[in-house]
Amino acid sequence: MQLNNNVTEFILLGLAQDPVRKKIVFVTFLIIYLGTLMGNLLIITTIKTSRALGSPMYFFLFHLSLTDTFLSTSIAPRVTVDALLKNATISFSECMIQVFSSHFFGCLEIFILILMAVDRYVAICKPLRYMTIMSHRVLCGVLMAVAWVGSCVHSSAQISLALSLPFCGPNVIDHYFCDLQPLLKLACTDTYVTNLLLVSNSGAICTVSFVMLMFSYVIILHSLRNHSTEGRKKALSTCVSHIIVVILFFGPCIFIYTRPATTFPMDKMIAVFYTVGTPLINPLIYTLRNAEVKNSMRILWSKKLISDDKK
Fold this sequence. Notes:
3% strand; transmembrane; 73% helix; three-stranded mixed sheet; G protein-coupled receptor activity; transducer; single chain; Rhopdopsin 7-helix transmembrane proteins; mainly alpha
């Protein structure tokens, strides 16, 4: 498809044009990315090494942290480097790869959040059958495989839409990463149908998933009235963490992908929330509000200190 286009590369305007503001963007995104890596890798290591975190909930949390790491890596490093350049360019092929990867890991995060909601529903509403229903080795593995396949189908549809667009110039993308919506503005053809397909794909996935998740948590919270005070407190803490993550991730996504092909000045800042903001916040939410994860981290850190002392 690239051979049919006059455009071989795009210019990314980024989040700022002023040199001072670009330096602020560089420092900010560098800190965010390093924090995201440290937080998520800490959770990944803790879950992998701790026997106490062997339940399905932590299996899904492991994959959520892995997905957050990849989602942030697909965008943040390039934004950080581009902030140091006078003119940030990205080749056509690299742009398409970024469209695919950002949508793949973004969609995978949506599916994992749904699986985590299902896990909490079974654990709270059907506690006696929890380990039977949520078989860690069988069902959870199958569910994650389905999530990966579903994400691949979604991102393949997105990249197909992007590759179907003819680009004759100009080639300036008013964004800090390649996404289908800013690319629609550069296409030298009528993009009404393409935008409709975008809304019916990404927009529908975001909206339907958000409604399903919020409805499931309403059911879960309603069922807590039959639990003991201690059980209610623990389950409520976990559910509140999940609800915060869902709102922070889906709010910006729904705003961006469920409207006509029009852009607003705040679009880029709102996109920051779900592309690099949520991957940074997730580890904080799941560690600060989860006693089991914090205890496992303390044990892991204690073992490391003992090991260092022996050396």
